[in-house]
Structure formats: structure tokens, C-alpha cells
Amino acid sequence: MTQDTAHEPHDEFIWLEDIYGTGPLDWVREQNARTEAKLVDEQFAELEAGILQVLDSEDRIPMVAKRGGWYYNFWRDRAHPRGLLRRTRWESYRQDTPDWEVLLDVDALAAAEGIEWVYAGSVFLRPAQDADGPGEYRRALLRLSPDGGDAVRIREFDVEDRAFVDPSAGGFDIPAAKSYVSWLDADSILLGTDFGPGSLTSSSYPRSSRILRRGTAAAAAEEYFEVPADHMLAFAGHDATAGFERDVAVDMIDFFNSRTYLRRGGEWAAIDVPTDVNVDLHRNWLLLRPRTDWILGGTTYPAGSLLAAELERFLAGEREPAVLFRPDERTSLQSWSWTEHYLLLNLLSDVSSRILVLDPAAGWAARELADCPPLHAVEATGVDDEDGDDYWLVATGFLTPSTLSRGGLRPARDGAQGAGTVPVKASPSFFDASGYRVEQHFATSKDGTRVPYFQVGPSGLVPDGANPTLLSGYGGFEISRTPAYSGTVGRSWLERRTADGRGGVYVLANIRGGGEYGPDWHRAALQANRHRAYEDFAAVAQDLIDRGITSREHLGCSGGSNGGLLVGNMLTSYPHLFGAVSCGVPLLDMRRYTRLSAGYSWIAEYGDPDNPEHWEFLRTFSPYHLLQAGTDYPETFIWTATSDDRVGPVQARKMAARMQDLGVANVWFHEALEGGHAGASDNRQAARLQALSNAFLWQALTR
């Protein structure tokens, strides 16, 4: 749509949008110095050191991915802040101190090449199948960010040689960009990247996937799949599952609509389902999850259900899928995972986990795993869907350190749901949880909706309104916030004490816009209905005050990214509820967000500000435009990162500058000069960022 500039609001701080400009960076450095002078003292140093000790702990669970007979892990600690890519065998992994084979030392690579590399993942080439089965995985495409942002350089790596494959010898080496890649075969990859003018979508992502053959320049890559420039992105990948080899392409129209294609007879054939139905292919099965109610063959399948059909029969026109899961008002499907013979469904029931095991060979008969304590998050995933029916089980809670177990499934007719789970690893405790309790409460939002939230605080909490309380939330993109152990929250908030000996209270709100109750819960706060997410969060804040847990002067909130937009709206629309706000890597300027970094890709979530009708509701939750002189705003800390190429740093800069220009007292700003959207590219940076935010909030709420 043509940009509507006729009614463009005046923006006196648009000069701060020059991300790497001399003037803006000088302003950033001045702000950083001012903020650090306020927050960095002896107590801060102790807080930062305590957080870093948690992040660097060598007793953390080294989560692994099985590739053939090896278990791969990426690890950061004090000695290796940028990390190690390493692997071990199963018997070794089970030991307290596994014997790790280091494949790549990212710190050493950064020092040798003079680039502050940040590891961003790997894509392995499936080994060839022979009479004895598949061989060992050897080649991988490593994703390395030069600054912690989303743009990555892709380099081919040989895990046996522990070295990159020399580009002069045909090794793949793709310059840094927002790229997607899949192995087509040993000598070809499917690549989506910045191929030059016209090759990116309006959202700054690749609009085509091309075949790049070994030894060929990227400019000569063969066009394979392309989408319109105003769609979000194009992806094409190769499924190398033995007996089910196929090429699959996805046209991501926006965040919530897509079209999936299969390569048939040299052409792309679309799987005929509505664009808001999630599509998943696994061997001969087609799984479908509608985001809105779907009428198919006279039957209505509700939003958030999971359906299964045999792929070839569905493509041939049969339209009677099996219903594997049907949501109710309390229960939603969060994810699924395959073992060799079973399908695992991870559910939430009032934001507590449940897990179902489905057997396709028995007509999708379902049974429930019993390993899910209340008010905890538990997730089951297959260890290797081509090598047996073992599964990982990860369990965590606000006061329960994470544990990793391994279990095995067998047919229900054997009289048991599986061979049981065996603990493999457990995270250490970073704070004494014996004096705390977890509670779940429900607040009533403005329109009468019940909104759940978790409260973590001292067992003998006195409801006199004087407890320093930190409220967190997200409320967007169907992302669920669930119970999780955090040593940093324990140390930096729960265990801290006020002058009269009070500890902190931590609260997590499960507001609309998230996925805690499935797609309907998310869709309830889309675009023109965005206010419902903010009303939900405000209702939780008010409920905490009404219950005597805290009061305005002792209640703070924090959020990042979309959560930054959330707390930005608390600042501007509900300033009477909060004493302090910590706002990180945020969206705040909803008039220009689509023109900044990857903002265009979020139109489906928020709306299009260049559409006058959309701007009418967008302006009601655009914090940058809602600021008014003379308002009693909470104390505010706004933080971001220069290298964030997803949201970008400029909205945070402009918000802080405008607040200061309006004469708002106690507005503080900090910008990490590297670190990407997470605000930190290693544990040291992450510890400093968390310490700054928590030191600010504690100071503001405990005076």
C-alpha cells in the first residue's frame, strides 16, 4: 500500500534513526554514561557477578541434539564466552562430567579472524544410506553472526576434520545476510539470501530460494521458488527422510498465513488448505492445525485442533482427516514431536503442562504421560524420529530447577505407556527456594475475561501493599509464557531484601495475544483489538494492588520486544498503576515501525500504519505518540542494542529522547553497542543488561 504521509505526525527525533551516525552514537554514549553513573556501584557489581555466575555455571544442563551416534551441544561459560561447538557419545553424556570432543572454539575463531562471531546454529547434511543404514553425519552449514544480529554468514564445516571447508576447494561460504539454507544433496544447497536488488521482501527477508551448486558463485544460483515482494519470506527445503525424499517450499505471506508446496513433476503443487492452517509433513503423514474454525466436507474443525491425514490420499482429494486433538476452554495444543512410531502432543491446561502419546498404528489411540506436576512446564520431544521411540522430557518450575530425563515408549497393549523415564541431568539450585511459594490467580479484565497469572513470593507474604513486585508479560504472536526456573530472577529479585527485610515478589501474566489458550487467545488481541492485551495486563496489576500484594509505588513491570511495546503502553496509558517500568528492545513508534528494520513483517499482528483506517487504532497504542507533558509517569529505563536488526534501536532512542525533552523526570536509557535483538551476544553482556534492569527497578521500588 502507498505510504500515507499526508498526516504524518511531527517527529523531532527522527535524526536518531541514523543507527550508526556520529551524532546519534554520541547521544547514545552520553546516555550510557549517565545511566551507568546512576546504577553502577558496589551493590551493582555484586548483583552483576551473581547473575554472571548463574549464566556461566558449568553445572547447567548441556542440552544436546542427536545426529547419528553423536550428541551435539553448544556451550558458553566464563572461559569460553562466545562458546564451543562440541559432541560426545551417549554413555559419556550420561556421566557427571562427559568427555566432550570440541569441534569449534568460537572465541578462538573470533580472535583469529578479527570478527566477534556469535554462533547461531547449524544445518547438517544427512549421511547417505547404505546396507547397514545411514553413515555418520560429517558436513554441516554453520550460521555465524558478525555482531549478534539476525544477519548470519553461512560456512560449510567438516566435523571430522574440525575445520571449515575451503571455499577455493568448493566449500560453501555465504556472506552475512538474513539467510535460510537447506541441503539439497552433498554438492547443492537450497539458499534464500540477499542476491542483490529486488531479492528481498518488504520485510527484509529473502523472497526467493535458489539452487547453489558447489563451486558456483551465488550470483549464478538457479531460481527455484519465489514469492511476491510484499509477502514475508520464501523458504525451500529438502526432506531427506529415507523413503520419503521430497522438496518442500513455503510462501510465508505474513506471520499467520502461508502456503505450502510440494515439488511434483518439475512443478510446485500447493497443498490445498486455507492459508491460516499450519501444515506439517512427516513421512506419509500430513498434520494440519487450523488457526480459525475450518469447515471441511461439512465438518467444522475448531481453531487450535490438530488433524492428520495420509498425505497421498489427501492430495488425491480425500478430505476426512482424523482429529488428534480438540481444544476446550482450558486446554490448548502448544507443540508436537515424533518418535519413530509415536506422536507426542505438548498441551497446556490453565497454563500447566499435560502430555499425550498418540499411536498412529492403533488408530491414533491416545494416552497421557503422568510426569507433569501442577504449575510446572514439561515438554516431551523425540530423541531421534528415525532411531527408536525414546523421548526427552524437560521439566521446570519457578522454584524447581530444570531436569532432563529420557524415556522410551512402547505399544499400549504391552500394559504400560512406556519404559519409564530415567533422570539424565539436573540444573543446580541458585537460590534457596524453601521459603517461597508459587500461586496461580485469575484477574478479571475490562471485558470480563479471566486472565491467569503466576505469583512467586515469600511463603509468609504480608498483604500490606508494601512488597516490591515485578510484573512481567508478553502477549503477542501466540507465544506462551509458562513457569520456568530462573536463577537470575531468584538472585536478583526474590532473594534481595529491603531495609525492613522484605523480599521481592515476581509475577508472570498470561495475557491475551499470547498462545496460552491457543489461537483464539492470540487472535482476541490482534490489530484493532490490541487494547485487550493491555487491559489484561493492567487488570493483573490492579488485582495485585487490590489483594494487598503491592501498591503503585512498589509495583514495576518489565518486558522486551513486543513485551517492550506492552510495558510502553503501561507507561503511557496506565501510569497510575506502576512505580517503575523497564522497557527493552521495544516497538514504540507504531507510525514508522513498518519502515524500521524487520517491522513490515509484523503488519498481520499490529496493522498497517500507512492504511488510514489502521492508523486510527494503531495510534491508540503507539507509546511514542501518546506521551503528554505534565503526566506523572513512572520512573523509566529504556534499553536496546545498536546491532538489533529485528526491531532496531531507534524506537527506544526516540522514546527516551522525547520523554527527556518533555521534562519527564527519572528517564534512563542504555544501548549495548553489540548483541542483536537479545541485547547481548555473550553471558557477560547478558549479565550486565539484566543487572542494569533489575538494579534500576529495585532502586525505584524500594526507596
Write up this protein.
The structure is a single chain. The longest helix is centred in the last third of the chain and has 19 residues, at 683-701. β40 (635-641), α13 and β41 form a beta-alpha-beta unit. By secondary structure, this protein is of the alpha+beta class. Among the domains are: 22-53 and 430-701, Alpha/Beta hydrolase fold, catalytic domain (Rossmann fold), CATH 3.40.50; 328-427, no CATH class.
Summarize this, please?
Helices cover 19% and strands 35% of the residues. A hairpin with a 2-residue loop joins strand 20 (277-282) and strand 21 (285-290).
Largest sheet features:
8 strands, mixed
Shape: globular
* Gap between N and C termini: 50 Å
What do we call the CATH homologous superfamily of the domain at 22-53 and 430-701? Alpha/Beta hydrolase fold, catalytic domain
Judging by the overall fold, what is the CATH architecture of the domain at 22-53 and 430-701? Answer: 3-Layer(aba) Sandwich
Low-confidence stretches: none
Mean pLDDT: 95
Instruction: Give me the number of helical elements.
Output: 14
The Cα radius of gyration reads 25 Å
The residue fraction in helices comes out at: 10-25%
Strand order of the largest sheet: 34-35-37-36-38-39-40-41
Q: Which fold name corresponds to the CATH topology of the domain at 22-53 and 430-701?
A: Rossmann fold
Structural class: alpha+beta
Task: Please write the CATH class name of the domain at 22-53 and 430-701.
Answer: Alpha Beta
Beta-strand portion reads 25-35%
Keywords: Hydrolase, Protease, Serine protease
Domain Peptidase S9A N-terminal: 9-404
InterPro entries: AB_hydrolase_fold, Pept_S9A_N, Peptidase_S9_cat, Peptidase_S9A, Prolyl_oligopep/macrocyclase
Domain Peptidase S9 prolyl oligopeptidase catalytic: 500-701
